[in-house]
Amino acid sequence: MTDRRWLALIVLCAGMLMIILDVTIVNVALPAIQHELGFSQSGLAWVINAYLIPFGSLLLLAGRVGDLVSRRGMFLGGLVLFTAASALCGLATSQEMLIAARFLQGVGGAATSSVILGMIVTMFPGPGEQAKAIGVYSFVASAGGAVGLLLGGVLTSVVSWHWIFFVNVPVGVATGVAAWRLLAPDRGPGLRQGADAAGAALITAALMVTVYSVVSPPAPYGWTWWLAAGLAVAFVVREATARTPLVPLGVFRSRTLTGANLAQLLSAAGMFGMFFVGVLYVQQVLGYDAMGIGLAFMPVTVVMGGLSLRWTDRLIARFGARRLVVTGLALVTVGLLYFARTPADGSYLADVLPSMLLLGVGGGLAFPALASLAMASATPDDAGLASGVFNTTAEVGSSLGLAVLATLAADQSGYRTAFVAAAVMVAAGLAVTMAVLRPATAVPAASVAELVPQ
To answer: Quick check: is 395 in a domain?
Structure first.
């Protein structure tokens, strides 16, 4: 049983790695895509946006539907759609075909990734093995972006940009076959026990408009932000009055769940945005090519992986998840501030590598511990909901951080202000952790289900 569960974990993480890689692997290939398909500079942004909008907006809905119907079915269905859409992306011969296929990729990616964390905490109920399993998941989720930069550079340089999508097809098929054999069939209570079509429509629309507002140029008078706020308010009113709400608002009475997700949103904004601005610095100032960029960020992956896979679970058991989050986010903040002092004529070894090491250690400590805290009060019945909420905060935070830091870097004609802003975001996540999350090493006694009025 134990061997089968750990094999199943590898399958789930393989699916997650595909999704995470796709976020960054495309960035390296954008110039080649633009040249071949004739994108304008503004139109090229939609190669990214067409993926981010459905991905960020559907995570919460997909996680809840997975709870009610089948998490295994949601994972497999999303994997099939993502793999098929990847093939269409690789075959694209026009701008319209590529953007449409990227949208389908985003839908499949949301369905696949929304239930993974929920399946992990269900398969590994014991605190020790759960912390280790979440450490593996967090390593894949956090370090996959850096691997994507390297892989994207290799495929684009050696073969063509089409293969950054084609590579997903054999991996997706193999992952799907393994998942079919290794993941135990499950069945939820059914949509009748929690169907909320109106709530689903409102939250999906609110998240979609929010992500659109983040990744697109500002609309006249900022009307999209007002629309997103109105939809969010309507969703809250709906969930407070619905007989079977999509997201029972009572779950947010858990300090642990709410605090961990808020800290995740802020720290993801700083960390993910830093990767984008850091790539620009390494490329435009140090003159690295696509493969060199991936190698430059590899220390983050190696250090974070070593901690997440071997040590973080033991440290959580010894010191408690909250202490690791505090220590990790403090190290990330210091790393970002060190990056901010990098001069225009800086060198990699003296000015970049120390930051990479601090970010790797800090991320390896903080992010697995945050995931453990966010899922600590989840039950088998609502693990998909908790997973969807956690993934949604990470995605929305990453999108916000990317938009804010990219704008700051462009406006200031440099990177120092952007890195300082990233440090401030992570420091805000640290402050939330210290103020909201209680200093306890044990898993909270109250479950999410117990906090929901019956």
So the answer is: yes
